[in-house]
Amino acid sequence: MAINCLIKSKILEENFYQTLFLTLKLASITTAILFCVSIPIAFYLSRSQGILKSILEIIVTLPLVLPPTVIGFYLLLLLSPDGYIGFIFNELFDIKLIFSFPGLVLGSIIYSLPFMVQPIHAGLEKIPKQLIEASYLMGKSKWQTLLKVQLPNCKPAIYTAIALTFTHTMGEFGIVLMIGGNIPGETRLAAMAIYDAVESLNYQQANQYALTLIFITLVFLGFVHLWRKKITN
Amino acid sequence: MNFSIDLFHSFSTLQGIQKIEANLQIPFGEFVSISGISGSGKTTFLRIISGLIPPQHGTICWGEQVWHDSKNKQCIPPQERNIGMVFQDYALFPNMNTLDNILFACKKKIEKKYLQSILNTLGLDNYLARYPHQLSGGQQQRVAIARALISKPALLLLDEPFSALDEALKKTVQSFIYEMHQQYSMTTLVVSHQISEIKPYAHRFLQFENEKLIDYPYIEKNNFTVQGILISKEKSESEMSQVTLLYDGKIYQSPFPSSELEKIQIGDKIHFGLFL
Q1: What is the pLDDT of residues A102-118, one digit of tens each?
Q2: Do B107 and A138 make contact, defined as CB atoms within 8 angstroms?
Q3: Dihedral sign, CA of B126, B132, B138, B141?
């Protein structure tokens, strides 16, 4: 009996760390990919005017206002082996997107896109036009100006974007439920684990996950706040 | 070789639609003063010729190189124009210290001695590690001047470059800019509210009047020229006659080319030299 209890608690502990690790892994990968993807998008939005910009802005904002289940539903259709994206990935790279970690990454990227793009876009727009013009007059190209002048001068906005994306991805639930399922070690994230624990009335475990998420988020936001403060000073 | 400008541009401001019209030829290596009342379009004019704003109509040619031709939709970007510019609010990069701000403007490797001479003359040696927010207005303005001069541009555009400098420093900076202009044959265009600052150096005085950039034919070198109403004229046997003009409620006498005297009548508006 005692051995059984010990084994059970050991398995629970392993599951806990595994779920936590997977959650952090997803948040880190999503944040890293979104950082690279969002800079060109934010740069384009900050420079251009007209209908294309408006369309892109609406597309980027969409995940903020739509229920996660709506996005999750269409992602489910697109990423399934019969869907356009799922078929391509399956045929070309032999990667199954639905109910798998790569699918979760793709879903998180789409869902968290506005959290990365919008603060960087706002940061780039705030930079005085004359700084950019001065750089051009010094012979620097648009990309050199972006890398050497614009991005370094909107560091606080970049840190905010990273913090928002990371913490938001950590707490993702709706999309994960729709396209990831709840496979331990594969697609089971902390938010799902809390839901499961509450369903089975295991409040102690739900509390353990919830407190850990709050702790990680607070520590992360604290670091970002300190960085921002240091830069602003 | 000339810097030829023939352009028209209109833009909206809080006061309404503002127009700029300019048609002039500036020989390479000239030091040119640009003046005009606030909001007359001086800064916009500099931004147009630097390529930051494309003019609606006209051409801008640097010698044989066409910088802008609105008819043929030809436009060389600012990066390829070899221009050094001091912005009215300096436009220093907040993420770079003084030295990095200056070196950022270098298109190729520069001699240490040359850099040192610029830093020394502008009194920036002790502020190299400071960031723009740690500098006073005058220091920031000197960094902006050093940054514009460092790459020895063919065209130097200065927008109110002495506004934050004290009198003693102003003279040093003015003579240094003139020295650099002479040494490297930089064509220099200076926008200033105080013509007296540029008077000793300028070859030519341009002024915005009624939305047009007028190239004043000065009578005597180094005199600022304004538009006065002719009250009387006295022809002399020498090359220069004497005319009396009314300007700003005061009466002035000015020398005027005798050969031109027949062409003007009492009551005409003519340009004349005003000794400042």
Answers
A1: 999 999 999 999 999 99
A2: yes
A3: positive
**pLDDT mean over B131-154:** 94
Residues of chain A with a CB closer than 8 angstroms to some CB in chain B: 128, 130-131, 133-141, 148-149, 152-153
B95 contacts A137? CB cut-off 8 A: no
Backbone φ, ψ for residue B6 (5° rounding): -140, 100
| Residue A7 pLDDT | 63
Cα–Cα distance between A111 and B79 in angstroms, integer? 39
If pLDDT is split at 50, 70 and 90, which confidence band does B222 have?
very low
Helix orientation angle between A190-199 and A2-47, rounded to the nearest 10 degrees = 130
- Any idea what DSSP says for residue A60? H
pLDDT of residue B274: 54
Q: How far apart are CA A46 and CA A150, in angstroms?
A: 11
Of B221, B275, B267, the C-alpha closest to B246 is B267
Which residues pair with residue B241 across a beta bridge?
Answer: B256
How large is the average pLDDT for residues B214-219? 59
Phi-psi sector, A188: left (phi>0), alpha (psi -120 to 50), beta: beta
Could you give the CA distance from residue A216 to residue A226 in angstroms, rounded to a whole number? 15
Distance from CA of A162 to the nearest CA of B (A): 20
The predicted-structure confidence for B50-76, as pLDDT tens digits, reads as follows 999 999 999 999 999 999 999 998 999
Q: Which residues of B touch A144 (CB under 8 A)?
A: none
The answer to whether B252 touches B228, Cβ cutoff 8 Å, is yes
- Axis crossing angle, helix A51-65 with helix A2-47, rounded to the nearest 10: 160
Q: How many residues does chain B have?
A: 276
| CA B35 to mean position of chain CA atoms | 8
User: Using the beta-carbon criterion (under 8 Å), do A153 and B84 form an inter-chain contact?
Assistant: no
Enter the pTM of the model. 0.79
Q: What is the pLDDT of residue B81?
A: 92
